[in-house]
Structure formats: C-alpha cells, structure tokens
Amino acid sequence: MPSISLLLAVVDTVSILFLGDIMQHKEQLRSAHIPGTDTLISSSYDYSSYFRHIRPMIDSADFTVANMEFCLGGPPFTGYPSFSAPETLAEEAADAGVDLFLCANNHICDRGRRGLISSIEHYESIGVPFTGIYRDSLSEASDNPYITDIGGISVAFVNFTYGTNGVRVPSPLIVNLMDEETVRRAITRAQNAGADIIIALPHWGPEYVTSPSDGQREWAEKLLEWGADAVIGGHPHVVQPVEPPVVYSLGNLISNMSRRDTELGLAYRLDIAVTFWGTVFIAGGEAIPLWCSRPGGYEEGYTILPVKEFLDRQDEFLNKWNHEKMKTTYNRLKTLFEK
C-alpha cells in the first residue's frame, strides 16, 4: 500500500481494464451466423450482442486489454478443439473499445503456419495493436514487449504462453513462450526502454481449477522479482485468487462453456497514479465479476453481464434458472476476488 504522503501527492491517475478469455466455440458460431448467408464469409457472423452491457465499463477505462483465445485462420470457421474464428469477432471487440489484443495462447497455432500468418494479417488490418506473436525474430526484437503511452505513462505489456498444444511454431514465426530467459529478456527490454509500469500477462495454469498451482505461484514470484509491477493471468477458464499485484486467472469473458464455475469471469481494473514529482506507482485495482450468459439465459444470444448490476434484475432474464446460477456461482466464488 502506498504511503499516505505519496497518495496526497498524486496529480493524475489512469486505469487499465483487463478482460479474460474471448473464445469461439461451435455453438457461438452457430448463434452468430446470419441466416441465409455464406458460412465461409466472415461478414456472415454478427457478434454485436457480446459487449453491449460492458461498453460503459470499457468506455470508462483509459485502456482495455483482452485475451483472444483463438486464431483467425480463415474458413471453414471452427470451434474446439481447433479454433478458427471469423475476423468479425475481433472487429467487434475493437469496435467495443479494446485497445490491445493478447495473442500468446495455446490455440494460436491451431491452423498451423497459415493460421498464424492469417491471424497476424487480420489483426494488422483491423488496426488494433496485438502482442505475443510475431512474423520473425526482427519483429519480435523490436515489438516485444508492447510499450505504449497511456495518459502520459509508459506501460509495457509482456504476454506469453505455457505452450501451443504440442503444435510446433513454424519458423520464422514466433509465439512468446513461457521460457525464463525469453520472458526475463522482454522485461529487461521494457526497463531499458524506460517503461514506468511493466505488466506480465501469462497464459498459464491448470484448467478448471480455482486455486493456482505451485508453478503459477513460483512464476509470479519470479516475474515480480525480475521487474514486473503486476501479473495478470489467463487460461484456466475459471477465476483464481486476486492477490495484488497478482491476478492468477481472470477466467472466461465469453465462451460456450457451462461446466462448474466457467460462466463467471472477471474484468480487472488496474489503477496507476502519478505524483507531483513524477513518481509512477500502482495505486490499486478492482476485480469486477462478469457473467457469460448463453442463448436463452438473459437474452436470445450470447452476452456478457456485469454481475452486481444484474443480481436484483431476475425478471429481465428469459430463464430465471440462469439468473439463479449466476447468483449462486458469484456467491460461491467471491471470496477469491473480494476482500
């Protein structure tokens, strides 16, 4: 906790919002498909329902980051186990206000070389910065980590994954992997570039487990020791403890998962302050519970609901059982992220 004297000297603050795993399962494709249109064309898929209820939260942040857990590998569009999503999903996220796409994840190589190149090309055409994947060693050296100015504060984002589901990353393409030397080098680059704040964004940990593994805890300690100011993780598909400056897992933002705990995710708002003397520090943060409502739950399509805003709005749900499941799941898990 910053000292009282430091807090009194704060002259400005910025907030960064982190969103969990954006996924694209087969049922999501079916729901998003516009009847009568060609299933092989990206524009045939409408994702406008996804972000409408969290737009105010995104708009209120100075910068928003989201984990894109799929590849943009082109048609035929597919869900699990080999994800290839229409680029309209990424376009909708961009239109909703996402400022940075995280791409280092275990599904980025699901379509091999073609899918990885296609993902890079589509993200470049959308015009929203992305990190964690690169065309070659030259682009990795110049663009890893991603560093940007947010309200006059230089912030570095270091994104990496434990693996790519056994699929070899085709040379010369690069996916940031969870290798100590590689990750430490990226943090050092951020320090040498004068970044005020360094945020590590690992894709890690056991799936469907609400407790972080020993490996996650060991890695978190190393990342902070090497110079990261915060660690915010993804991949387990359920929320894991928020122990500032570490958020072990945000869980899912949007998916078709229905197994225990997978429909509740987190957004995490990280607050950064600047003092009169130019000192920059993390001033706090807030975990915001979100509910992934699948078709027939709150409305006809998929959508993301800020849980606390909808706890007392049962009558608005198409399916009252879905509201009850949201409420029960939140009450069971809130000790992980609310103190």
Protein described:
With 339 residues, the protein is α/β, with parallel strands linked by helices. The chain has ten helices and 16 strands. The strands form three sheets. Strands 1, 2, 3, 4, 13, 14, 15 and 16 form an eight-stranded mixed sheet that branches. The chain has a six-stranded mixed sheet with strand order 6-7-9-10-12-11, with helices on one face. The longest helix is centred in the middle third of the chain and has 15 residues, at 112-126. 47% of the residues are buried.
What structural class do the secondary elements suggest? alpha/beta
User: Biggest β-sheet: count, sense, barrel?
Assistant: 8 strands, mixed
Q: How many beta strands in the DSSP annotation?
A: 16
Return Rg in Å.
Answer: 19 Å
β-strand amount:
25-35%
Helix content: 25-40%
What kind of assembly state do the chains in view correspond to? single chain
Mean pLDDT: 96
Count of helices?
A: 10
- The string of secondary-structure elements, in order, is HEHHEHEHEEHEEEHEHEEEEEEEHH
List segments where confidence is low: pLDDT < 50 over at least 5 consecutive residues: none
Determine the N-to-C terminus distance.
Answer: 15 Å
Shape: globular
Topology readout:
Layout: H1 4-8, E1 10-22, H2 26-32, H3 55-60, E2 63-68, H4 87-96, E3 100-102, H5 112-126, E4 130-131, E5 133-134, H6 137-143, E6 146-150, E7 153-161, E8 174-175, H7 180-192, E9 197-203, H8 214-226, E10 230-232, E11 242-243, E12 246-247, E13 252-254, E14 264-275, E15 280-293, E16 303-306, H9 307-310, H10 320-333
Parallel strand pairs: 1-2, 1-13, 2-3, 3-4, 7-9, 9-10, 10-12
Antiparallel strand pairs: 1-14, 5-8, 6-7, 11-12, 14-15, 15-16
